[in-house]
Specification:
The protein is mainly α and 507 residues long. It has one domain: Amino acid/polyamine transporter I (Up-down Bundle), CATH 1.20.1740. It is 70% helix and 0% strand. Helix 4 packs antiparallel against helix 5 (120-138), helix 8 runs antiparallel to helix 15 (316-350) and helix 17 (393-425) packs antiparallel against helix 18. The longest helix is centred in the middle third of the chain and has 35 residues, at 316-350.
């Protein structure tokens, strides 16, 4: 059903307001960007929809079916503990993240945060990392969707063997059409798909726990990870990618009602929800397979572990339904990523760091429609190019997801440092609790720094590629950040009015 490499990194509501007047200027109190209504996105998302948009990023069913078996190989019975540890660490990261969102009320996500903490050159470098990272992470989806749907059509439905690239181009068209529209439409689609996925995983979990017969050795057979564990480093490295996407809670600032309340709630709910959801799913595997046998079983049957377990526990019909929802799960993940990437493109264009046409807002949908179309065109062109070059889908998605995820991980580390520096500089003028402004950002910076070092030393495993590919993609990633910083310095010398806007600042 799945190539284990395909999900090595996914392997990441009804409360709020919208505005229809697009003629007046609207700077929120304390908002650093002088944004006219033509430059502001609009939406009506609430806490629940925002959380579901974040959860969709990590493609829950894809993670449970394809990634957790891989994690079990690295960590065995400590897999649930790995998720709980990461949940704790990212909650600590969220403390400073949420506190800073109250001080930096710009909708640029990490782009705005890094700018506020480390300056405009670092902020523009971080924005380039983000745009590249999300573009590449999202490109995992067309190829994975294609091979999954192709296999289902041929093997289960006994239908025609349509070339994979037609499926890939089809999903790109669908997500681009949804991303073109008002964010509320995407939110409703993502919420519906996420609810169905969660139901399937919960049924699987309950069946797995029931199968253990209540025996303590099997049903409560996981252990917490320890620093001496042989696979801890790789387990943490791969599992942290399942939490990516919660940055969206601040990216959508202009598209939710009452962001002061919605953003903190959605951030904490997303991190806790993701961590607990996957920890329980990993625990369910252990309950079904046995604490002592889970690691060996995952290694022997990585790709089909979920499908075989679901068939054994509940039946073939349930397993087939799970495959269908796996296909929609990939679509939802791609849509979530495309929405985030489009908003980075929009923010950079609104600041004039990218061509201005990418910063247009649709007059009716209030969406970054040109940026959304551009992301889709890039993915479509890349699909055609790789098809012509004879590169198969199995080779595309590990490289796309791995290299893109490294860029986002590096950006998260830079952001954690930025949050710490931001509050250190403002200790006198903007007092905040030591826990929120110093301790939590420092702890998260150290933790994410360790994970980043692990990613650098294990980059070839991350992308499942050769030494040459490792050198090329890693060099390119660091060059992106450096290139963005240099570009900002050029703007400071040649176009100071644009430089002043960087990070969604007031120009």
């Amino acid at each position: 059903m799945l190539d284990a490499r395909s999900v090595s990194w996914f392997s990441i509501d009804q409360i709020l307001d919208d505005g229809d007047d697009m003629t007046s200027t609207a700077n929120r109190p304390g908002d650093g960007a002088a944004r006219t209504e033509e430059q502001r996105l609009r939406g009506n998302m609430g806490v629940g929809e925002l959380v579901m948009s974040v959860l969709a990023f990590s493609s829950p069913l894809t993670t449970v079916a394809g990634f957790i078996p891989v994690l079990l190989i690295f960590s065995g019975r400590t897999a649930p503990g790995i998720y709980l540890l990461l949940t704790l660490m990212l909650l600590i990261f969220s403390v400073g993240f949420v506190r800073m969102s109250r001080s930096v009320e710009n909708p640029g996500g990490f782009y705005s945060f890094v700018t506020a903490g480390l300056g405009r050159p670092a902020g523009l470098g971080g924005a380039f990392l983000a745009l590249f990272g999300y573009l590449f992470i999202g490109f995992f989806a067309p190829s994975l969707f294609a091979v999954t749907l192709q296999g289902f059509v041929v093997n289960t439905l006994h239908g025609p063997d349509i070339p994979w690239y037609w499926y890939a181009l089809g999903i790109i068209t669908v997500t681009t059409a949804l991303a073109y529209n008002r964010i509320d439409l995407s939110a409703k689609v993502l919420t519906t798909v996420m609810i169905l996925e969660v139901i399937v995983v919960v049924i699987f979990d309950l069946a797995a726990f029931a199968s253990s017969g209540g025996g303590a050795e099997r049903s409560i057979g996981f252990a917490l990870p320890w620093v001496a564990d042989a696979g801890l480093g790789l387990a943490l490295l791969f599992a942290v990618g399942n939490f990516f996407g919660f940055e969206a809670t601040v990216i959508y600032r202009d598209e939710v009602r009452n962001p002061e309340r919605t953003i903190p709630r959605a951030t904490y709910l997303a991190v806790i929800g993701i961590g607990v959801f996957y920890a329980v799913a990993a625990w369910a595997y252990i309950a079904f397979l046995g604490a002592d046998d889970a690691q060996g079983a995952a290694e022997a049957n990585t790709v089909n572990l979920f499908n075989d377990a679901a068939t054994s526990l509940i039946g073939t019909i349930f397993a087939d339904i799970a495959v269908v929802l796996l296909i929609t799960s990939i679509l939802a993940s791609m849509l979530s990523i495309q929405n985030i990437a489009a908003r980075y493109s929009f923010s950079l264009a609104a600041d004039r760091a990218l061509p201005a046409f990418l910063g247009r807002v649709h007059s009716r949908h209030g969406s970054p429609h040109i940026s959304a179309i551009s992301i889709g065109l890039i993915w479509g062109a890349a699909t055609v190019i790789f098809t012509v070059l004879g590169v198969g889908p199995d080779s595309l998605y590990p490289i796309a997801s791995g290299s893109g995820s490294f860029a986002i991980l590096l950006l998260m580390f830079i952001t954690s440092v930025s949050v710490l520096v931001f509050f250190l500089r403002r200790r006198g003028s903007e007092p905040a609790s030591v826990w929120k402004s110093i301790v939590a950002p420092l702890v998260s910076a150290v933790f994410l720094g360790i994970i980043t070092v692990l990613a650098i030393t294990n980059y070839s495993a991350l992308i499942d590629g050769s030494t040459v590919l490792t050198v090329v993609f890693m060099t390119f990633t660091f060059a992106l950040f450096a290139g963005g910083a240099v570009y900002a310095l050029v703007l400071r010398a040649k176009r100071p009015e644009i430089y002043a806007r960087l990070g969604r600042q007031k120009g």
